[in-house]
User: What shape does this take?
Amino acid sequence: MGKVETGTCWPFPFFRILQRFSPSITEASVPMRSFIHGVLAALVLLATPALAQISPEAGRYDNGKMWTFEYPPIDYLAETYDFHPDDAWFERARLSVLRVPGCSASFVSSNGLVVTNHHCIRGRVSQVSQPGENLLDNGFYARSLEEERRIPGYYADQLIAIEDVTDEVDAALMSAQTDAERAQARQDVFDAITVRLKAAQSYANIEVQVISLYNGGRYSAYVFRRYSDVRLVAAAELQLGFFGGDGDNFTYPRYALDFGFLRIYDGNGRPIDSPHHFTWSPEGVEENDLVFVIGNPGSTTRLATSSQLEFIRDVQVNHTLLFLNNRLAAFRDFYDEDPETGEAMGLRNIAFSVSNSQKAYSGRKDALADPMIIARRQDAERQFREAIDKNPELREAYAGVFDRMTAVQREKTDLGAWYGAFRLIDNQRFSSATMLRSLLAYYYLSQKEQEVAETVLNQIKNQLLSIADRPHGLEQRILAARFSEFAYHLGEDDAIVQQSLQGQTPEAAAAALLDQTALATTDGAARALDAGTLTMDDPAVRIAAAIARPYQDYQSAWAGLTAQEGELGGKLGRARFDVYGTAVPPDATFSPRITDGIVKGYAYNGTVAPVYTTFFGLYDHYYSYGDHPDWALPERWRKPPPEFNLATPLNFISTSDTIGGNSGSPAVTRDLEIVGLNFDRNIEGLSRDYIYLPERGRNIMVDVRAIREALDVMYDADRIVLELTTDKLAPTEEDADAVMMQ
Assistant: This one.
């Protein structure tokens, strides 16, 4: 079913109409607002037949199919697909996948060859580019092992063991009385588990992560083997990996060749032995095929209560979206003004990342404005509460938990203005460097007045001076964005707004402040500190003084509420596990999961989406959109050679349950042949943060047949084609040619 725009077309105009008759609704309590949303949802359901196609009743798999390896869905697979994988199947699947920074990947040969998405490594492609090279735009292929380029600071984690540590953690938490004591006890037992499990392994590079499942209903210790010598083997050009740009992001049909190859080396500088790997499928997939996507989904909130979803809808999503919109505009405007500087500082990749988040939050906003989704989550919660009430022991153990969670959400909502105004204010990547320095400078000067020890002052000073400068034009734009957020969330009468704007526009106020403060640059701050001329009268410090107390109050209140929310969520997680066991998967935790799906089209926009696209479509878009940069092609692709098969499947879709973090995840068959690389969801699938609706959502994958065709014909990468098809390692391209000619 295609996307139905309900949030913008029905609830908010109705809300405004109601306000005309009852102005007090504007100041309504959270319960009243929730009641109003419920009334409006009912009106929408009556007035909109299309929405009735999706039932308001909770579905069996609304919480998704992100199965964990410690609780494999053996009965479910047998019941649903008559598929009966054994322990060896799950072990090979688990050991063949990898977790890389922010994404997923997998072994595809016994020689340490790894495949993932291009967008997962595009920053690393820039990182290993040498002077005079532009590998991001031109692509890269190492024609020998010696040419494979090590990526500094990069790593890949392989899950080699799992241990249930629920009893150990619960025992440690039993005697804790306060939130602070529980937090400390939890950290202490996690540390003890980590030390114990590291000591039990024979490998040197071991990472242990204690994963909270079901919001603390269960705990698993995941033991990862970390590989730290990872080298770039091949990467498509940016225009192929991100074909369609922002316009096509989170849409389907798609035509992106989003792939890259890495190789893992051992401590002696040789490719590692990787006996557990997926084999490259020569046939690919067909409609109605069963596929498994295995990777590391980032995070979901499917186990949240309806009151938590209402807070996310009313506060978190809107405020975060405004923040992202402002930062993206600042990054893009500066890049357009000074592309050379922007390219040197990696601003293009940063903007891609922010743009992706922006579109994702837009989809989340639409999803939570859909009354059907809220209705289904409320029905699931009703069933859950009824199941608890039917059991006297559970009813006594979890009495009042839902009501207390609702109360916490009310208090969080009351902090909404501060939440928006101070969003990521201490984040060096997205906040103003001048703002960060001013907050530290105010703290430094306040501590100095209290005659604290010199060592403390030096620590603050060093932290202040460690904040890197930004180009003036970019810093001014980001500072103006923060000022505009102060005004939007706090109102023109607020002391922070008045001190920041001084009666000017955010843009003019930011420009004036950077001209007047000693904290606009690191050098200026250092000189003022050394000379003793930095005082509370500095205009940036005056703004920080206005911020300091409200920000401190907000941080304190917010920390207390999130701690309460965590503890209540843990109780509800234990209750959920008591009621449903492992029949309901836990929320995603950026740890290895396996999810099943069917290769299947869907209705959208008055037509039907095909199960796969081809290179014909890529060229159609290139010619149809003319010179538009999002659908441009690199030079080598503009006139494909005659032997290039344009009918090769390029992207395909399935109902597999994926989310951010699954990028680069292998899609495999029952025989553990890799048939695709997960790289995106359609716009309807953005509701998966909160609910899994296979009627609407699809995950989108690069077809391995397209990758092989591109390697073979466009890139002449015989060395990689040989390894993928025969598992033979050819040190050089010449060696590969010799083998293939035999």
About this structure: The two ends are 52 Å apart (CA to CA). Residues 1-52 have pLDDT under 50 and may be disordered. Residues 433-551 form one domain. The first strand starts at residue 67 and ends at 68.
